[in-house]
Amino acid sequence: MRPLTYRLRFNTPAFLGNAEQNAQWRTPPFKALLRQWWRVVCGITDVARLREEEGRLFGAANDEGGGSQKSLLRLRLDAWSVGKLRGGWGSDPQVFHPEVGQNGRNVGAHLYLGYGPLVYQQGTHLKHNAAIQAGETNVLRLVWPGREGPLAELVQLLHWFGALGGRSRNGWGSLELEHLHTGEGRGECAPMAPLAADHPLLRRVIRPLADCLRLDWPHALGLSDDGRPLIWQSTSAFATWREAMQALARAKIGFRGQFVLGAPGPFEQRHLLAYPVTHHAVRAWGNQTRLANQLRFKVAMNSDGAFVARIFHLPCALPRELAQALGRSAPSPRQQADIWQQVHGWLDNQPAFRRI
Question: Residue 83, SS3?
Fold first, then answer.
């Protein structure tokens, strides 16, 4: 069980809070993120076997008298420092949102993607005391049972796609990692492999869209019918993370807005993308149902130190409970695929983004 050591960096601010709602570096969110991506890299789709193996590696609490399991994964951060981003938010670039107000209006891109941790108070502000600033770094040390290869692959996926904290699916808390070689007075960093469509690890964790929609939990990155991964990256690189987030906000407004909503009550196509939708509750679901967006965002750094905006799809079926609540109006797997292909087609036609 030889430890692996990585230098971490947040490319965007992270809304990563402790029990007092103050931002702080903590290990539990990192363990949860490793667990999420392990479900992708392990390739296990049988739920019973997945839970058994996951409990062995990450630990499990059994309340039914079967005994608990201690995690075999050990991890440590060099510092549990608190976030230093406090007070006003600063510059928030504007994007036009056609559904705000009678004829549309400009809104803050960061506020749009971070609403909740961010609020509007005569401008964009943090809701709670602090956030972890973009550019803050730490050192993560991991010990994994058995061969180190699977752990290295898992961390590689975090480097390509990982983000932590509140609104992380929208790109907040985007992680950058480097392998840190320590010992004998050395502390040299080696870069991780860049994201490429033909990388063997990436090819191993993608599945055709139709296959992904047979299970109602995210277990693989999607693959379109033409054999390309469902991953898009901005055609331009940006000098700041703020501009990269603005590009992601424009994309989200665009691919959601192509689905025009009618009167509240029935299920409509846009509800599959994420739920709830403001002022358009589905009668069968009510206001308390939550359906997270399967399209996730990441702000990554290229070899020149500039930022790129990344969008990727972890497809899965509409959860069974939500489909059952809809009854006969529930979309079939074929209909779900058609909706997602409209989103993919919209992204394919945007000059600001391209498939990797």
Answer: coil
Model pTM above 0.85: yes
Phi/psi region, residue 2 (left: phi>0; alpha: psi -120 to 50; beta: rest), is: beta
- Separation between Cα atoms, residue 258 and residue 347, nearest integer Å: 11
pLDDT tens figures, 206-252: 999 999 999 999 999 999 999 999 999 999 999 999 999 999 999 99
Using omega within 30 degrees of 0 as the cis cutoff, is the peptide bond preceding 200 cis?
no
Contact 23, 130 (CB under 8 A): yes
| pLDDT (average), residues 89-105 | 92
To 10 degrees, what angle do helices 47-58 and 27-41 make? 140
Q: What is the CA radius of gyration of the chain?
A: 21
Q: What's the CA gap between 2 and 147, in Å, rounded?
A: 9
Tell me, what amino acid is at 96?
A: F
Return the number of other C-beta atoms located less than 10 Å from residue 2's C-beta.
Answer: 8
Nearest to 121 by CA among 94, 87, 93, 95: 87
Beta bridge partners of residue 105, listed in sequence order: 97
